[in-house]
Design brief:
The protein is mostly helical. Helices cover 44% and strands 9% of the residues.
Length: 116
């Protein structure tokens, strides 16, 4: 299983079209590249805060707070373009959360993995 290429030990593989990263053989939609740096920073801060709130609620065993915090995580990911409507406009479907081998990226992925 390949999850790292390039010069960074923690850098995930990016699909050739720049729409997804691959983590554990699964596609995850990247953030919308048209977001301004200010927007990206704010939405990322919102996401991290919501994730911390999820963790706190889980540790406290407060299921209502967990649900509310997970909703905030979802809202932040939608704002970043990682969930919800796709940010590209060429009509291509969303393959986010799918195994690479079950998508049109399968041949590219197989060739990439075989090179390592």
């Amino acid at each position: 299983m390949l999850t790292v290429v390039g010069g960074h030990d923690d850098a995930p593989v990016e699909t050739p079209d720049g729409r997804y990263i691959v983590v554990n053989d699964r596609l995850w939609r990247k953030s919308n590249p048209t977001l301004t740096p200010v927007e990206r920073e704010q939405f990322t801060k919102d996401l991290m805060a919501a994730r911390r709130t999820v963790g706190k609620a889980l540790r406290e065993g407060d299921q209502g707070a967990v649900q509310a915090a997970r909703k905030l995580v979802d809202e932040a990911k939608i704002a970043l373009g990682e969930r919800g409507e796709v940010w590209w406009d060429d009509g291509a479907p969303d393959y986010g959360r799918k195994l690479v081998k079950n998508t049109p990226y399968a041949q590219w992925w197989t060739a990439l993995v075989n090179d390592f």
